Amino acid sequence: MKSNKIIVSACLAGCNCRYNGKNSKVKEIEELVNKGKAITVCPEVLGGLQIPRKPCEIQENIKSFCIVNEKGEDLTKAFLKGAQKTLELAQKTDPPEIILKSKSPSCGYGQVYDGTFTGTLRKGNGVTAEILYQNGFNIISVD
User: Fold this and answer.
1) Considering the domain boundaries, does residue 60 fall inside one?
2) Disulfide check for 47: which of 7, 40, 78, 88 has CB 3.0–4.6 Å away?
3) Tell me: the pLDDT tens digits for 61-114?
């Protein structure tokens, strides 16, 4: 049975959980949470990453991908762990839609940074967005 609550990236609801310890608050999303119409999630925090943390981007080659911070440290396992926990929440609540933060290596949907730490975007999804998409969830990307 579908839930009437949507899932939203916590940073969009005003939670200071972004890599830089800040948020990307969207007033309308914050209001949905305050009215009990949305559930917040931060896959990166669920995966065990600290706040603040070094910025991370997805680096891809033909056979695989990894998510590294700007120092080159591989944090792929933490990102995958957070994506899996987010998927479990989505499967449990079956939301009508999931609103995710654009461009993020976790939540980006449609476009993410290209792994060069130059601000260059490429077509693709963050790991959480991709797993949710592959499992049939309706995803909306918000900047």
Assistant:
1) yes
2) 78
3) 777 899 999 999 999 999 999 999 999 999 999 999 999 999 999 999 999 999
Q: Determine how β-strand 139-142 pairs with β-strand 65-69.
A: unpaired
Phi then psi dihedrals of residue 52, to 5 deg: -75, 175
CA separation, residue 108 to residues 26, 34, 119 (Å): 16, 24, 14
Its domain, for residue 92, covers 6-142
Whole-angstrom Cα distance, residue 67 to residue 38? 28
Helix (H) or strand (E) holding 142: strand 139-142
Cα-Cα-Cα-Cα torsion 33, 88, 19, 121, nearest 10 degrees, comes to -100
Domain count, the chain: 1
Q: Is residue 1 part of a domain?
A: no
Q: What is the pTM of this model?
A: 0.94
